[in-house]
Amino acid sequence: MKRLIKWLLIAFVILLVLTGLSLTALFFGRDKIMRRIVEQNILAQTGMVAEIGSFHVGLREPVISLKDFKLRNPAGFGDTPLLMIPEVFVEYDQAALAHNKIHLTQVRFNLSELVIVKNEAGKTNLFELGLTLPSPQGKVKKDTGLAEFKKRTGLDFAGVDALKISIGTAKFIDLKNPQNNREQKIGIENLTLNNVKSPLELAVPLGLMLQLRSDNFFSDVFGTDVLGGLK
Q1: Nearest of 115, 131, 118 to residue 229 by alpha carbon
Q2: Which of 12, 98, 104, 105 has its CA 20 to 30 A from that of 201?
Q3: Which carries the bigger pLDDT value, residue 90 or residue 60?
């Protein structure tokens, strides 16, 4: 699912995308206060409860990090988390930021758990959040979501020099028919990608790795070859 892959690329800046906070507040707010503000803004803008174990913005060093990030499913999809992210670590280019560009020199992103839920009405949480399956032709759309990022932050995204991604487990929960529930260990550890300039440059290698590691999990859950659209 190419838009799901796109989410993984921009998840390490989800705080910037969702909060709409000014850079001044981001850099000079205290960590505990910022953590609470971020949680409240995610709830206000998405209706989803976010919990952050710790949140740190370096004042002297150009780093942003958070640990134990949990994003719960929207109302009507049970009380399970949608995402569980033990760590996001971002090191950014201060000179680029001065020119209104986000250039990330180093990123670590660890997604330990993704929970896909179908509610009793037959709706799926990912689709309700606006994620879609590939078109029948399997073509990758030009829309990358970066226009929305620029709209919210006023910044251009200039790429990532070194990106390390880990993905643990994917789960499917059917609230109407629990016998359909299943869990799949993905087991991607520190997949390293260099010089990532666009979501497509992440989608192709990550999509291939997911195909190899998911044992048809996504195809079985959605009833189609959801990763085939990345070819």
Answers
A1: 131
A2: 98
A3: 90
What is the arithmetic mean of pLDDT over 177-193?
A: 94
pTM of the model: 0.76
Residue with tokens 């037959």: 122
Query: pLDDT at position 139, please?
Result: 46
Decide if 118 contacts 128 (C-beta within 8 A): no
Strand pairing report for 50-57 and 63-72: antiparallel
Q: Locate the domains of the chain by residue range.
A: 2-230
Would you call 86 helix, strand, or coil by DSSP?
Answer: strand
Alpha carbon distances (Å) from 32 to 39, 124, 198: 11, 34, 32
Lookup: tokens for 63: 């780093």
Specify whether the CB–CB gap between 217 and 168 falls below 8 A.
Answer: no
Q: Which of 31-45, 52-66, 92-106, 183-197 has the lowest mean pLDDT?
A: 31-45
